Structure formats: C-alpha cells, structure tokens
UniProtKB/TrEMBL annotation:
Highest taxon, organism lineage: Bacteria
Name of this chain's protein: Transposase-like protein
The organism's taxonomic lineage, starting at the top: Bacteria, Pseudomonadati, Pseudomonadota, Betaproteobacteria, Neisseriales
NCBIfam families: transpos_IS1595 (NF033547)
Annotated ISXO2-like transposase domain residues: 66-159
SMART domains: DDE_Tnp_IS1595
Length: 169
C-alpha cells in the first residue's frame, strides 16, 4: 500500500478511484497540477502523491544492486575546448567516472579527480567481490588479484586494457 490520503482533503468518498486515476495520470506523464484539475483534488495533494510515487520507484529500482560479472571502468572529461589546451590537462573540465556491466547497466558519477584514492571507494561500493574488473592501466590496483593476459590481445592503438578479479573485502 502506498499511503492513504486523508478523507478530509477530498470531497470524493471513493479514495481508491482517486488513487487509481492519479497513478494512471502519473504513468501518462501528466503534471501534478493538471492531474489535480482532472481528478478534482488540491494541487498540493497531487504533487505530494506524485512525489511519493517517484520515491517508491526509486526505492524499488535495481540501481541499488551491486555490479557483478564482467565490469569495465573508465573516466572521461567533459567541458568546452580551450585554445591551446588538449586532453585531460585542460582546466575547467569535469571528470566523470563510469562503470559498465557488460551487456547490462551503467553507473556514472562526477569526481573531483581521477586518482585511485577517489575512485577506489566508488569501485568498492558498486562492484561485488570476485567480479572480473577491466580497467585502464593508470588505475592503481594493488587490492585486486591479477590474471596475466597477452597484452597484444587487449591492445588497440597503444591503449592497453587489463582485466583483474576483485578480492573479497
């Protein structure tokens, strides 16, 4: 059960019908103000109901599950080009760190820097132990168990990717 609207806030005695109509309008993408007009409730009631629906969707979504299996990690920099500046050295760019489960979901977060001390807590929080973790060669991975692979099989234009398995914490 979501929650019950107080009977005093609605002139209609059939609250189940109001709940049903508000959910229907929420799914249809109608604004809370327009839904309030259509259903005949106060705009604050509809806004509160829509807020609670969004909260329930958030709490029950799979985003809270940790990554497992094969997980890739990388960072990227976003921002306008500065004259005479190239690559990550350009000032004013925002660093974004991302995790990708192969054939699955993606997790991204903006980070102040791409140092191991910043990225490793994110990896620990989002990736299950014993997952296969693929990353670029800059990330310090002393806490990972390593597997050896022929570098040439992972090399593309002098960019090397290494796969590792995380240790149980």
């Amino acid at each position: 059960m979501l929650f019950v609207l107080p009977a005093a806030s609605s002139p209609c005695p059939d609250l189940n019908l109001i709940h049903y109509k508000l959910i229907e309008l929420f799914v249809a993408g109608v604004t809370a103000r327009k839904a309030a007009e259509l259903v005949g409730v106060n705009k604050n009631t509809a806004a509160y109901y829509f807020h609670r629906l969004r909260l329930l969707i958030y709490q029950n979504s799979p985003h809270l599950e940790m990554f497992d299996g094969e997980v890739e990690a990388d960072e990227s920099y976003f921002g306008g080009q500065r004259k005479g500046k190239r690559g990550r050295g350009a000032a004013g760019k925002v660093a974004v760190f991302g995790l990708l489960k192969r054939n699955g979901k993606v997790y991204t977060v903006t980070v102040p820097n791409t140092q191991t001390a910043t990225l490793f807590p994110i990896i620990r929080e989002q990736v299950k132990p014993d997952s296969i973790f693929c990353s670029y060669d800059v990330l310090d991975v002393r806490e990972f168990s390593h597997f050896s692979f022929a570098e040439t099989s992972f090399s593309y234009q002098s960019q090397h990717t290494f796969c590792r398995t995380t240790k149980p914490y």
